[in-house]
What we know:
It is a single chain. With 184 residues, the protein is of the alpha+beta class. It has one domain (10-183): Aminopeptidase, CATH 3.40.630. 29% of the residues lie in helices and 33% in strands. The chain is globular, with a radius of gyration of 16 Å. The two termini are 26 Å apart.
Amino acid sequence: MDHPLVVPELPAGEKFLLRPWRLDDVAVVREASEDAYIPLITGVPPNYSDAEGSAFIRRQWSKAADGVGYSFAIANAGDDRAVGQIGLWPGALGRASLGYWVAKSARGQGVAGTALRAISSWGLERLRIPRLQLHVEPWNAPSWRAAERAGFVREGLLRSWQEVGGERRDMYLYSKLISDRGSF
């Protein structure tokens, strides 16, 4: 893409909201940086400082400004406190990739599945992207269960697909198609 994108606010069920990142969201970036896994698979800084937290948020803004994709903070609808991140990255040939993480303090509340349903409906219906896909490590059952609850279908195992933490890892491939109308 060669033009800026606009990251909208999207309702995600009754309890959550997908919205643009704000500088006051650094608390969730700090919490995510303390997680053993999130910094390995994302741009979250592994050694948090206020400067690194602010830089992470500015990078999320630059993705839309540069036309690369949409990075949303996942926030509680009640107090607007950020609890995670979800992104949609349009690619070639009518495909887009999705990625997400949820801070430890917000896990077990259906955050990821609810956010995935919201962003996938938006991507398929509003942006008219024919195919959405995401990758999840086989051991990460909470993540792949969230994908399945959001209507994504496991297509297979990609062996040695991605480097994570200095080693090659297998990934499940999940997809959701514009033709999957009943699963929005």
